[in-house]
Amino acid sequence: FREDSDICYGNTLTSIPHIGKKFDVIVANPPYGVDWKGYEKDIKNDKTERFVALPSISDGQLIFAQHIVYQLADEGIAVVVHNGSSLFSGDAGSGESQIRKYFFDNDWVEALIQLPTDEFFNTNIYTYLWVFNKNKPAERRNKIILINASEKFQPLKKNKGKKRKEITPDYQKEIVEAL
Q1: CA 89 – CA 85 distance, rounded (Å)
Q2: Which of 19, 82, 113, 150 fits a disulfide with 129 by CB distance 3.0 to 4.6 angstroms?
Q3: Is 43 in contact with 55 (CB distance < 8 Å)?
Q4: What is the DSSP letter of 38?
């Protein structure tokens, strides 16, 4: 981390230690598939107006994404790791659908990057990077870059739990160049 990083511990959805700050860069890997039932009352009574809609109680990923975008400066960029539910869950008109619509209508989603399976320690599912940019260059406005990096990996010589693949520096460079 940079020397000027500001890291606080606690639940960012309920204790909100950075609520008065905006950040130029945010990198996050919020928990996926984790319910937010224990925080439902606090989240539903939130006065910050950072939540335009609420997803299913069984998965709070899109709550974290809304919080991250709320904390992002007008010139800021964020990269957030999600599983597929942030893209595919919820029927039309559901909380999940409304949240995605909000992100797309505001033109904050610059890219969606599909990563290989078996890339993270505790899961063998596909993961996706959501790249949020509140200040897209003119040539990228009202567009979203879709990058399929699912085959950009090298098998690990020795598995680390469910992690069996890694994105090599050459593949990392290729993905960044595509972006």
Answers
A1: 5
A2: 113
A3: no
A4: G
State the angle between helix axes of 61-71 and 95-105 in degrees (0 to 180), rounded to the nearest 10: 30
Question: Can you tell me the distance from the alpha carbon of 170 to that of 134, in angstroms, rounded to the nearest whole number?
Answer: 28
Give the pLDDT confidence of 48-93 residue by residue, as tens digits: 999 999 999 999 999 999 999 999 999 999 999 998 888 999 999 9
- Listed residue (141, 134, 125, 2) closest to 61, CA to CA: 125
Q: What's 87-137 look like in SS3? A: HHCCCCCCHHHHHHHHHHHCCCEEEEEECCCCCECCECCCEEEEEEECCCC
115-174: pLDDT as tens digits = 887 776 666 678 899 999 999 999 999 999 999 998 888 777 887 766 777 888 898 899
Report the candidate in 76, 142, 87, 131 with the shortest Cα–Cα distance to residue 109. Answer: 131
pTM summary value = 0.88
**Could you tell me if 60 and 37 are in contact, meaning their C-beta atoms sit under 8 angstroms apart?**
no
